[in-house]
Design brief:
Layout lengths: L2 E5 L3 E4 L1 H4 L19 H14 L7 E3 L15 H6 L1 H17 L8 H14 E5 L5 E6 L7 E2 L5 E6 L2 E6 L16 E2 L8 H12 L11 H7 L2 E2 L8 E2 L5 H10 L3 H4 L5 H16 L3 H18 L5 H16 L3 H18 L5 H51 L1 H8 L1
Parallel strand pairs: 6-9
Antiparallel strand pairs: 1-3, 1-8, 2-5, 4-5, 7-8, 10-11
Helix pairs in contact: 2-4, 2-5, 10-11, 11-12, 12-13, 13-14
Keywords: Methyltransferase, Transferase
Protein name: Histone-lysine N-methyltransferase SMYD3
Organism: Trichinella papuae
Length: 409
């Protein structure tokens, strides 16, 4: 099985857009659009409750060897946060909001809150739904020991709040001799150039990534490449990456088909937004075109069994089903299944849902084949009768007076 580990969050909250379906964390939270507490603030409320109840461990199972972690083992980087003007401003807003939510006698000291804020910032996982959209924020005590790589060995997927750690290599066998903390995941979006990835990692996690991919100058040059001047050439025009390039890129996005190479990460990102917008607008043809175009681009940058590839194949299959093109849909759904088996695991609810979609597709294909066969049989029956009638008519005409008259004439 591709699953390495699974863990329920020690503490988590769901996003504001889903909040109305669940109970309030605290009756003192006033649900007003402009004053609604952020995910981080509400997660701090959860953590305070956990600490007051002396709950320090989470429900975790793993095939690899690992060191069981508690809340106190999490890193906070509070010294770096204290020097970060942006983060200290966020922390001040959190403290102000917490005073309105938590009773004064239960509110921890500022130093403890700073530690808590840092642990959420450094160790928090964004919980994703089946479409890989943000659905919440959680602390997973044991999965938080995984280090970052821009070319990761594993990926974390979610089924509700439950997290699954899966390998991205189907040939990689996890045993008790495998050490969990030696496995890697990506903390940031992988379809981006090195400069942006490093900037995001440093601003959030306070380190500069020096992984193998960040040292690959060739791949990074492709990620920021322009189209070759020769319109018939599939090659890339390499440019020097400078700070003002990103400003220029924003101006060129509207003309990206003319200027940006198909594998340019900015073009891919915008292409993704176009796909979402087309789907929301009900433009199925345009959506299909975009998502099919994205397949090769995702496969270039991502591991073979990355969940984004699985979801993209599934989306294309679903769109073909909406167009009643079930044979084509089935081919994409089966491709999704081959990837999702490793990216999500066979126990994941999305994998089970995908199986039901494949079953429905096969059923529709069988129904269509039966109707086609039945229709062909009916046409053969209809075609036989006119030929028999024609023979009888010919026989009659040979013995009719009119026929003799015509022959005589």
């Amino acid at each position: 099985m591709p699953e390495v580990a699974e863990e329920w969050p020690w503490a988590y909250v769901i996003s504001q857009k889903l909040f109305k379906t669940c109970l309030l964390i605290c009756r003192r939270i006033i649900v007003v659009q402009s004053n609604f507490p952020s995910d981080s603030i509400r997660l701090m409320v959860r953590i305070i409750g956990k600490l007051n109840d002396h709950i320090s461990t989470s429900d975790f199972s793993c095939k690899a060897s690992y060191e069981n972690r508690e809340y106190n083992n999490l890193m906070s980087h509070k010294d770096e946060i204290f020097k970060d003007e942006k983060r200290t401003s966020e922390f001040s807003r959190c403290c102000y909001c917490l005073k309105w939510i938590i009773e004064p006698n239960k509110l921890p000291e500022t130093a403890i809150l700073m530690e808590m804020f840092g642990k959420i910032l450094i160790n928090g996982f964004v919980i994703l739904d089946h479409e890989l959209n943000s659905a919440g924020l959680g602390l997973y005590l044991n999965l938080s020991q995984l280090n970052h790589s821009c070319n990761p060995s594993c990926v974390v997927t979610f089924d509700g709040p439950k997290a699954y750690l899966n390998t991205l290599n189907s040939e990689f066998e996890v045993t008790t001799s495998t050490i969990l903390k030696n496995l890697t995941i990506s903390y940031v979006a992988l379809i981006d150039d090195t400069a942006h990835r490093r900037k995001a990692l440093h601003e959030r996690y306070y380190f500069i990534c020096k992984c193998e991919r960040c040292s690959d100058a060739r791949l990074d040059s492709i990620a920021t490449a322009l189209v070759c001047d020769n319109g018939n050439c599939d090659g890339v025009a390499i440019i020097n990456v400078a700070e003002d390039y990103y400003k220029r890129t924003e101006e060129l996005l509207a003309k990206q088909q003319k200027w940006l190479h198909p594998l340019n990460v900015h073009r891919i990102r915008t292409f993704t937004f176009v796909g979402h917008a087309a789907y929301e607008s009900g433009c199925i043809e345009r959506t299909l075109f975009v998502y099919e175009e994205l397949i090769s681009k995702y496969e270039f940058y991502l591991a073979k069994f990355h969940p984004l590839i699985a979801v993209n194949f599934m989306t294309v299959g679903k769109l073909y089903m909406l167009r009643n093109m079930y044979t084509t849909a089935l081919s994409f759904l089966e491709k999704s299944l081959n990837v999702m088996k490793y990216s999500h695991g066979e126990k994941h609810s999305l994998y089970v849902h995908l199986l039901s979609m494949i079953e429905k597709c096969q059923l529709e294909i069988n129904v269509h084949d039966n109707e086609t066969a039945k229709g062909a049989s009916n046409r053969e029956t209809v075609n036989v009768k006119p030929r028999a009638n024609a023979k009888r008519a010919a026989a009659t005409s040979r013995h009719s007076p009119e026929s003799h008259e015509q022959r005589r004439g």
